[in-house]
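Continuing the batch. This is chain 6 of the set; chains 1 through 5 are on the previous pages. Same settings as before, nothing changed between runs. Recording input and output for traceability.
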Amino acid sequence: FPYFHPLNPKNCIIYGPSGEVLDRDCGSQYRYVCKQQLI
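Output for chain 6:
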């Protein structure tokens, strides 16, 4: 059973190649997969 740490909702949710779920800053590196929420 994989352990999921609490994800930061301000970050991007990235699904890794081996099934892991990561949260990363929505910067230029992940801009193509990110949509920032409008507040």
